[in-house]
Structures are given as structure tokens and as C-alpha cells.
Amino acid sequence: MVPKMDEYPFQRVPKVAFLFMTRGPLPFVPLWDRFFKGHKELYSIYVHTLPDYMLNVPVTSAFYGRQIPSEEVSWGSITLVDAEKRLLANALLDFSNERFVLLSESCIPVYNFPTVYEYLINSAHSFVESYDENTRQGRGRYSWRMAPKIMLYQWRKGSEWFELNRELAVNIVAEHKYYPLFRKYCKPSCYPDEHYIPTYLNMFHGALNANRSLTWVDWSRGGSHPARYGAPNVTVEFIQSIRNNGTFCLYNSVPTSICFLFARKFAPSALVPLLNLTSTVMGF
Question: What cellular-component terms does GO give this entry (predicted)?
Fold first, then answer.
């Protein structure tokens, strides 16, 4: 999957691959269809569901026919990493796919497609949270049986909702030295989807990583799941607060106020009010 030539021997317009991981329905398909409209040559979509679920969308939808061969997935297990690798592997088969973003059924875009596309295609870094946390939920999940291949000082944690360039996507799909350690020793209380890619990138590709997520999420309420937002929560002010939350982050080593391109976790009831805000707030 890695080109041996400096330039592709054919015209190649780089695309962004949107990887949706869901158990079943995608309630925000109408919102995403509006987001994708008019940009067919610049994106690809891949959907991983439970094996017995068939995605039911109109023929005119960008999601039509975009399910990939899937396997059973359970929360907190290595099967989540398997699903991520399965999505990446399918997306890598299209040589035009240059950037790869993982999303769930509760994710929404908070900017229009041209803004998201330019942000990703022109980025010098990938976007994966990877941090050292000296708590029971961080270092406490490390198993000494992973040594010496993975040491405690190399162990990292982060959100599973990544964004990768093609080089890192190839490396993660091809990686077979450290994945078996996670499969064997990172059991459900370890949550391998929060540690496998962050640890691997920290060990070998830290310079290529912006070390932050592009997906906004609210953990302020505590617990093992983030806050969930429905119709009553969707206002102009709320979406604007996600788009510009008053903080700055680095983009290509320069400070920027655009830190999040996507947001979660939204309930299906949020669809109609979100559709009412797309043209006035999100620009699509």
C-alpha cells in the first residue's frame, strides 16, 4: 500500500475518508448528506455496523452501498480496535484517500465540508490524543506483562476518535508486533481502543501527531460516558461554543481558534434542530 514512486503515475485528487463505526442506524444521515452535497470527488465513506444490520438509506444518499464486511464488536474490548483496523484497511484500498477520520453514529460536523477538507488535507500532522495519565484509569491499566516491548513510560491514553494521514493509517493496519500484546493483556477494564493507537504513535510517530482530537466531547458530568445532547440543547449559542470555545490550539505549529471540526455525543432528537442551523451557523 506504500507507493515506491515520488509521484503517482496518474491524476490523483486527495480525498478524506470518513469512517463511521456504529452498532446500527445512523440517525444523522440527513445532516451528513447535506454536509457532503456537491463534493463527491473529495470524500469517501465507510460504515462498520454489527454483522446482521443492513443500513437502510435512499439510493441518493452518500451512505448508500458504503457498508464494509463487519464483525461483532463489544464495548471495551479489542474488537473495537479490530473494527478500526477493518475500516482503515478498506479505506486504504482507494489510493486517493489521504486522510482518515473515525466517527460514531452520534457525531456531527460543526463546520462545512470545504473548511473540514482544507483543514485536514493541508495539515502537517495527524490528530490523535496521546497523553500520560498517572491514575487508575491511565497508568493503572498498564500490564507489566507487556514489557519489555511496551514499558510503562511509553504507555499512553487518548480518545479513540482519531484522524490519521495515509502514512500512519498504513502503519497501524500493518502493525503486528504490539497488537497481540493488547489482545492478550489489555482486557475490557483496560479499554484497548483508548490505548493501542495512542501508545503506538507515542512510541514511533510522535512527531507526526498533533496530540489532540478534532472531535469535541463533554466529560464534565463525570462517569464512563460523556454528556449526551438532544433537541432542547441544540441552539445557535451551543454550536457556536463548540466551534470557538474560547481556547486556542496549534495547527501546523501556529495558534488557531479552529480546534474542533466534529462533535459528539448527540441524540437522534437533535437532528431537526441541527438541520435548521446548518445554513446559518455551520455554513452548509
Answer: membrane
User: Coil, strand or helix: which one is 176?
Assistant: coil
Which residue(s) pair with 67 in the sheet?
47
Backbone angles phi, psi at 92, to 5 degrees: -70, -20
- List pLDDT tens digits, range 176-201: 999 999 999 998 789 999 999 999 99
Cβ count near 257 (within 10 Å): 12
Q: 431537526: which residue's cell?
A: 272
Report residue 25 as a C-alpha cell.
Answer: 442506524
Q: Specify the 3-state DSSP secondary structure of 75.
A: coil
Q: Which CATH class is domain 15-213?
A: alpha beta
Q: Which residues sit opposite 215 in a β-bridge?
A: 262
- Element containing residue 47 per DSSP (H, E): strand 43-48
Q: How far apart are CA 67 and CA 214, in angstroms?
A: 24
Provide the whole-model pTM: 0.95
| Nearest alpha carbon to residue 17 among 105, 108, 103 | 103
